[in-house]
């Protein structure tokens, strides 16, 4: 069955990963096939000796030894096959999972979270059987070929009779491979759609329950079920038809060989032992059932590997080997950045500079690209045009480790990774003392110490609200350090008092890092050194919150003028700057549009 290059390389790498086991499995299979071919000859010889009352002890013991050897080889084949499948599955899962994490959000956007999980779990398990199926299939033809050769040695007419039906068996196997491949592909695609919809529903379980739409959403999740059923029935029909045709042809060939052997026995050209051996060899030569099963398994594994190969075709972002200047201030610059999502241009030719050590708030209506710009600044994604630089170095030119060490990020819904609360904040990179300090800065230390086991509490057992999860995400960003801190709506779930305490740290002078903050509240924007107002995919203006407030369109971003004005006055009263050199410099660098 032809494979695309990516799938072939993936299966090749998986086979090399367990090359010794593949060779051992092939040798065991070949040895078992050899023992199967010797057994009929030994049985026939023992029968002839017994019928003539000659000593047959040696041949009877030989038959017993071959039977015992076949039992031992079958056990070895089972153990080797099982461990090989498990080892290969683990290799494929590590390979695909690592690639998905390297690609980042683009992988989820293209395939969907549920479909990715289905591929990593289900498709990898099926594809993991490919090296074992290959090794076993290499030995499988040796049985029929050896059996035909043995028939020819007993009498050439026996081989001729059998070979008259061989082309029919070959066509059946070829038809099976073609039909099974298409059915399995359809079946696995339908499984992926169900898994994707189920993952989405589990994430929105509270919304579904509150809206009372459980039945409707269950129907939506299971909508591909009829397609799954049709593909499954087609798959079993193809395999069942092939098996039925094969089992119809095989007995006819077996009967023909036995009939010719019986005729030759009556003419004294064969002995009774030869007839017994010929009958056994005819069974081995018509062992299509084994070939059908192995070929079907190989087709399914290759189809599953092709689904994994689709994920690997999504390119991971490249990294360079340049270094950031030592002691750089963390100056962030976007030059002509354009970013698209589907057919829509979200950001169009954005030019923006954030001087080192200052705070820039990104403000704009929903859908104007604030989070996308923050993702570009942290290189969670790359622009379709233009470039993003940190201290004069384009982000793609940096090594992965240096890039991640230089940029800390916090999000509106942080993923709490790690075994314990301390693990999720440190991620194995920060010392306990630094974790505690970062937690105090994020106002997370108090509620963590009240947990049953404090910082050693498992994440799964720690009750935390949305605001507490955000504080842990902020603590992780603070503990990370670096020269650029990006907060993508990371304060949205905090209560007013906690937000005031955290923003005092974020916008204060306790850190020298450059800060990029996605802001939805006027009070948050008022605390920043500079505000970039996004509108229609462009930076409409850059300045201080007080300067931009004079524009009605900017005030409308925060709702009614009264609500926004109250927020702005609160931010100014808390010590927000009303005009800085950084803001003036940034506005000057942003061009005439920003100065309107």
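Q: What amino acid sequence fits the structure above?
A:
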């Amino acid at each position: 069955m032809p494979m695309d290059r990516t799938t072939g390389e993936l299966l090749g790498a998986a086979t090399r990963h367990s090359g010794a086991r593949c060779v051992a499995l092939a040798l065991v299979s070949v040895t078992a096939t050899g023992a199967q071919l010797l057994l009929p000859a030994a049985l026939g010889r023992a029968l002839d000796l017994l019928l003539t009352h000659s000593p047959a002890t040696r041949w009877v013991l030989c038959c017993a030894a071959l039977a015992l050897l076949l039992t031992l080889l079958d056990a070895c084949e089972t153990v080797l096959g099982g461990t090989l499948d498990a080892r290969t599955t683990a290799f494929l899962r590590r390979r695909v999972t690592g690639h998905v994490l390297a690609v980042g959000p683009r992988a989820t956007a293209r395939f969907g979270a549920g479909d990715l999980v289905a591929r990593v779990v289900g498709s990898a398990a099926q594809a993991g059987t490919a090296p074992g199926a290959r090794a076993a299939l290499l030995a499988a033809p040796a049985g029929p070929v050896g059996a035909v050769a043995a028939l020819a040695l007993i009498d050439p007419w026996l081989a001729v009779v059998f070979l008259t039906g061989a082309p029919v068996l070959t066509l059946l196997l070829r038809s099976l491979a073609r039909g099974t491949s298409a059915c399995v592909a359809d079946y696995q695609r339908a499984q992926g759609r169900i898994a994707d919809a189920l993952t989405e529903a589990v994430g929105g379980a509270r919304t579904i329950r509150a809206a009372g739409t459980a039945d409707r959403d269950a129907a939506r999740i299971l909508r591909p079920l009829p397609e799954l059923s049709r593909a499954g029935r087609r798959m079993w029909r193809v395999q069942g038809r092939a098996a039925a045709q094969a089992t119809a042809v095989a007995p006819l060939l077996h009967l023909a060989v036995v009939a010719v052997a019986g005729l030759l026995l009556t003419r004294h050209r064969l002995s009774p032992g030869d007839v017994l051996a010929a009958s056994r060899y005819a069974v081995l030569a018509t062992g299509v059932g084994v070939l059908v099963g192995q070929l079907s398994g190989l087709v399914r594994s290759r189809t599953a590997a092709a689904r994994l190969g689709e994920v690997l075709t999504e390119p991971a972002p490249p990294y360079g080997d340049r270094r950031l200047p030592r002691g750089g201030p963390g100056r962030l610059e976007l030059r002509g950045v354009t970013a698209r999502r589907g057919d829509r241009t979200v950001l169009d030719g954005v030019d923006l500079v954030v001087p080192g050590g200052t705070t820039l708030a990104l403000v704009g209506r929903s859908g104007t690209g604030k989070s996308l710009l923050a993702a570009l600044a942290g290189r969670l994604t790359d622009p379709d045009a233009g470039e993003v630089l940190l201290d004069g170095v384009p982000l793609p030119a940096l090594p992965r480790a240096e890039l991640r060490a230089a940029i800390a990020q916090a999000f509106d819904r942080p993923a709490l990774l790690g075994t314990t609360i301390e693990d999720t904040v440190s991620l194995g990179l920060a010392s306990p003392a630094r974790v505690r300090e970062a937690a105090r800065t994020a106002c997370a230390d108090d509620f963590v110490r009240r947990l049953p086991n404090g910082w050693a509490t498992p994440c799964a057992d720690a009750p935390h609200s949305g605001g507490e999860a955000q504080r842990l995400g902020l603590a992780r960003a603070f503990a990370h350090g670096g020269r650029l801190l990006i907060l993508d709506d990371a304060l949205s779930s905090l209560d007013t008092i906690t937000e005031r305490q955290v923003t005092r740290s974020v916008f204060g002078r306790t850190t020298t890092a450059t800060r990029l903050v996605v802001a939805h509240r006027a009070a948050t924007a008022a605390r920043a050194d500079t505000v970039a107002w996004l509108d229609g995919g462009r930076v409409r203006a850059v300045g201080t919150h007080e300067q931009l407030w004079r524009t009605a369109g900017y005030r409308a971003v925060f709702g009614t003028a009264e609500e926004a004005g109250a927020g702005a006055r609160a931010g100014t009263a808390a010590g927000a700057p009303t005009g800085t050199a950084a803001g003036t410099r940034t506005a000057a660098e942003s061009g005439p549009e920003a100065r309107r």
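Q: And what stands out in the fold?
A: Confidence is low (pLDDT under 50) at residues 560-596.
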